Amino acid sequence: MYLTNIESVPGMKITNQYGVVSGSTVRAKNAIKDIGAGLKNMVGGELKSYTELLEEARKEAIQRMQAQAQRLGANAVINVRFATSAITAGAAEVYAYGTAVKVEPVQVPETV
Amino acid sequence: MDLLTIIIILLVTYYTGSIIEKKHFKKIKKREIALYNRPYVNFQIKKWSSSRKVASAELVTGEVVISGDYFKTFIAGLKNLFGGRLTSFESIMDRARREAILRMREKALNANMIINVKLETMMINDINSGKQGSLPGVAVIAYGTAITYAKK
């Protein structure tokens, strides 16, 4: 599955489009990790456990989006965007969306 | 809370916060210099007047969550009364964005360039939420398309 956030897949031509596909996930952090993060929150610096959470959430959102595209019969998602929102303190949503398309390699690969 | 404890916490967090920030900026600078000749741009390329063929294009992301400290939040709270620049938070946003972009670029070390770089920012526990004991932090996702040219 090709994933890009530009309007094409370089070297490929779009033969069919299936509309917008999206995937979203809402994650809450775990209470034990939160204690450490609370302490780090006082002194400043990177909140590693939150970063991991964000990474997982991003992966999950992309996975769901890809699954939806696959069900439609697409083999690429182009123009992927992310949107995030903090729902409550300690929970965050990551939303990924893009256009599902079918692409085929062109005989003469075009330059980007 | 007792006034003395607040003053002690302020002093300690001022100290730790500035040390962590200085270290972080130093690291960021070093990594940015190391990646100096790897271009990343925030536009799409429709027609590139180049003879090089593209072998692969894939989505790369970098994410980070940076927290403010107690001292910065306290200062920002004071400044909120009078208005003006909140320099203590400006440096946090700067650190978070640069770190996220760096992580994205470091994931695409074998690519030739990253195009269409976008940033997505989310405040966690923002200062106006009014909840006691919640200190603001910022989460940033940087993403773009890594382009690798075909070998000639």
Task: Kindly describe this structure.
The complex is a heterodimer of chains A (112) and B (152). Helix content of chain A is 34%, strand content 44%. With 112 residues, chain A is α+β, with helices and mostly antiparallel strands. In chain A, strand 4 (76-88) and strand 5 form a beta hairpin. The longest helix of chain A has 25 residues, at 48-72. Chain A is elongated, with a radius of gyration of 18 Å. Chain A starts with a strand and ends in a 7-residue tail after the last strand. Chain B has 152 residues and is α+β, with helices and mostly antiparallel strands. Chain B has one domain: Translation Initiation Factor IF3 (2-Layer Sandwich). A three-stranded antiparallel β-sheet of chain B has the order 1-3-2. In chain B, helix 1 (3-34) crosses helix 2. The radius of gyration of chain B is 20 Å and the shape is elongated. The chains are: A alpha+beta (112), B alpha+beta (152). Strand 3 of chain A pairs antiparallel with strand 1 of chain B, so a sheet runs across the interface.
Low-confidence stretches of chain A: none
Largest interface, C-beta within 8 A? A-B, 39 and 54 residues
CATH topology of chain A: Translation Initiation Factor IF3
Here the CATH topology of chain B equals: Translation Initiation Factor IF3
Q: How many domain units of chain B?
A: 1
Offer a quick outline of the entry.
The complex is a heterodimer of chains A (112) and B (152). Chain A has 112 residues and is an alpha+beta fold. Chain A contains two helices and five strands; from the N terminus they run ββαβαββ.
Which keywords apply here?
heterodimer, A: 112 residues, alpha+beta, Translation Initiation Factor IF3, four-stranded mixed β-sheet, 2 helices, 5 strands, B: 152 residues, three-stranded antiparallel β-sheet, 3 helices, 3 strands
